[in-house]
Amino acid sequence: MENPQTVKTRYEVRVRGLVSDLLLADLGVEEETTMTTSMIVEVSDEAALHGLLRRVEALGIELVSIQQAC
């Protein structure tokens, strides 16, 4: 049985525009697409997700959508 503290949840975070490869790597993103950037991220808990979203906002990146990924 997995320790609940080690289970991560995947989210698709879509933002407007293209994001540099360096920033994608810094945010821990696994893949991206064009014109909007679709970032698949894994977070350990809700606080980590909110921290990621605060970083995106602080960088002035427009959030388009967020949803739990499969």
Short description:
This protein has helices spanning 21-27, 46-58, and strands at 9-16, 36-43, 63-68.
Ranges where pLDDT stays below 50 over 5 or more residues in a row are: none
What is the CATH topology assignment? Alpha-Beta Plaits
Gross morphology: globular
Order of helices and strands: EHEHE
Number of beta strands? 3
Query: How far from one another are the termini?
Result: 20 Å
Largest sheet: 3 strands, antiparallel
Average pLDDT number: 80
In spatial order, strands of the major sheet run 2-1-3
Radius of gyration: 12 Å
- Give the % helix: 25-40%
Structural topology:
Elements: E1 9-16, H1 21-27, E2 36-43, H2 46-58, E3 63-68
Antiparallel strand pairs: 1-2, 1-3
Keywords:
3-stranded antiparallel beta sheet, 29% helix, Alpha-Beta Plaits, 3 strands
Walkthrough of the structure:
With 70 residues, the chain is α+β, with helices and mostly antiparallel strands. It has one domain (9-68): Alpha-Beta Plaits. It contains 2 helices and 3 strands, in the order βαβαβ. The relative contact order is 0.30. The mean pLDDT is 80.
